[in-house]
Design a protein that fits this description.
Elements: H1 9-27, H2 31-61, E1 66-69, E2 76-82, E3 90-96, E4 99-106, H3 109-118, E5 121-125, H4 128-133, H5 137-153, H6 159-176
Length: 177
């Protein structure tokens, strides 16, 4: 279910959960379900606090703002920018230590920030992280792999040729390590 107001999406969900489930559980004195509802509401309020922090960071930085994965175990970030492929739309471009890996297009900057939060990338990060990663061997290897995938998807390489190219890239970067 898409929220009506992206800036307050989690607060709206928490309020709706409170009104729709928690108050009924409390009226029935269902202690276990009340406890469960309280946990859900608390998590939604915490997520709203993260979303508020994201909007504050975006208002300070603007397009080019970067947000990291909340667990940071996946070492992924999103870059917020206008979508060059779809004029008038906006996207987050996801990247990790091996380069660009996905994107998500939305109608408004508010929606794309909300979707980045939904994807788990809600911790404001320094914009220098992208420059830092882009100079590494891991990034270079990832970008070369992405080029092979793109060329295969565009019909410029067969699966067999792409596989051969992947094997040579793996050998190249293993030897460099």
């Amino acid at each position: 279910m898409k929220p009506t107001a992206f800036r307050t999406a989690y607060a709206e969900r928490a309020d709706a959960f409170q009104e729709g489930f928690a108050s009924k559980a409390a009226a029935k004195a269902d202690v276990d379900f009340v406890e469960y509802c309280d946990e859900i509401i608390t998590r939604l309020r915490e997520k709203q606090a993260c979303l508020d922090q994201m909007f504050k960071h975006f208002e300070e930085v603007g397009f080019g703002a970067i947000f990291g994965n909340e667990s940071n175990t996946h070492k992924q970030w999103v870059l917020i920018l206008p979508d060059a492929s779809h004029p008038g739309k906006f996207r987050y471009q996801m990247f990790g230590i091996h380069g660009w890996n996905s994107h998500f297009t939305c109608n408004t900057p508010e929606e794309v920030i909300f979707e980045a939060c939904e994807a788990g990338c809600c911790i404001p990060a320094e914009t220098s992280i992208l420059d830092t990663l882009a100079t590494t061997k891991d990034w270079q290897w990832g970008m070369e792999r992405l080029d092979v995938i793109t060329r295969m998807n565009n019909g410029q390489l067969s699966h067999e040729a792409a596989h051969e190219r992947f094997m040579s890239l793996e050998a190249k970067y293993r030897a460099a390590a």
